[in-house]
Amino acid sequence: MFTSLDLANHFGFKIINGNLKALHREIKVQELDRPGLQLLGMFSFHQDDRIMLIGNKEIALINDSDPEFIYKNALQLCSKNAPAIIVCQNEKCPEPLLRAATKNNFPIFQTPYETTDIMSRIYIYLNEALAPRTSVHGCLLDVFGVGILLLGESGIGKSEVSLDLIKKGHRIIADDSVNIASVRGTLVGTCPSQIAGMMEVRGIGIIDVARMFGINSLEKKANISLAISLVRYEKGYRVERLGMKTERYEILSSTIPLIKLPVSPGRSMAEIIETAVTNFKLKDNGYDTTYEFQKRLETIQAQKKEKEHNLKLIMESEND
């Protein structure tokens, strides 16, 4: 649960009103409100689950209105569902509003930020804080600047492959468990705090990645663009030979490309993953090797047909 106190602590807001119980009101939506119309008594379209910002315009409106009229409307503003009111630009909280907040034990904060500035900052911050979240068993790495979600059954060697990639200069975000949030349609992966910077290597145990390979081998988060699943190679396993088919992996109602790589003795999985990521980046930049190969085959077939046609014409002319 994300609360008004969490927001205040993040931005360093000064607490003007509200006890500890009031400060633990839950914030459920990232949308914000400027309650000018509500202060005038117009609540027809009021949504009481939003954080409200009081800027110069609202302050001027309150000062030019009857205090008791504002107090009556402020009582409705300071409802039990609303998370908080933020008074911007270090303005003094108007007396009718403060009186209503005190009566309802409602949280009011003060900030030196300009109203439009803090509005955009809060909106961006809440987009991440309130984003849908899930956890996935796997590893998350940054390979050539691409966020790779490495999947596979337990014991298949995800951590060992990740270790090889780290030794090649790539960076790891999370091993074994990956926290994923969908932020404005982008999948952002992070590491659970209790295992941050740690890896489990079978036969050795837990290792500290930063101490062994340097601080540059770690990254705090990455946008997940590609999923690679390690699968055990068994006799009869059908492998995609040309790469014509692109599978997708769904997370939090979003999908990303999925590549399945068979694992077998003698295969350098780290180098194969580097190749897969490079090919993915080429496709993302408009060059599809499979398409180019298909075009080459079509060109060769067309040239062959043209030669056969020309030969047929020559033979027919000789017979004539």
What does this structure look like?
Helix content is 38%, strand content 26%. The protein is elongated. Strands 6, 7, 8, 9, 10, 11, 14, 15 and 16 form a nine-stranded mixed β-sheet that branches. Strand 12 (198-201) and strand 13 (205-208) form a beta hairpin. The protein has three domains: 4-129, HprK N-terminal domain-like (Udp-n-acetylmuramoylalanyl-d-glutamate--2,6- Diaminopimelate Ligase, Chain: A, domain 1), CATH 3.40.1390; 133-285, Rossmann fold (3-Layer(aba) Sandwich), CATH 3.40.50; 288-320. Helix 5 runs parallel beside helix 6 (95-104) and helix 8 (158-167) crosses helix 10. The N and C termini lie far apart (90 Å). It has 320 residues and is an alpha/beta fold. The model has no long low-confidence stretch (mean pLDDT 90).
Task: Quickly describe the structure.
The chain has 320 residues and is of the alpha/beta class. It has helices at residues 4-11, 20-23, 36-39, 56-63, 67-77, 95-104, 115-129, 158-167, 209-213, 269-284, 289-319; strands at residues 14-17, 32-33, 51-54, 85-87, 108-110, 133-137, 139-143, 146-152, 171-174, 177-183, 186-190, 198-201, 205-208, 221-232, 247-251, 254-263. The longest helix is centred in the last third of the chain and has 31 residues, at 289-319.
Give the helix/strand layout:
Layout: H1 4-11, E1 14-17, H2 20-23, E2 32-33, H3 36-39, E3 51-54, H4 56-63, H5 67-77, E4 85-87, H6 95-104, E5 108-110, H7 115-129, E6 133-137, E7 139-143, E8 146-152, H8 158-167, E9 171-174, E10 177-183, E11 186-190, E12 198-201, E13 205-208, H9 209-213, E14 221-232, E15 247-251, E16 254-263, H10 269-284, H11 289-319
Parallel strand pairs: 2-3, 3-4, 4-5, 8-14, 14-16
Antiparallel strand pairs: 1-5, 6-10, 7-8, 7-9, 10-11, 11-14, 12-13, 15-16
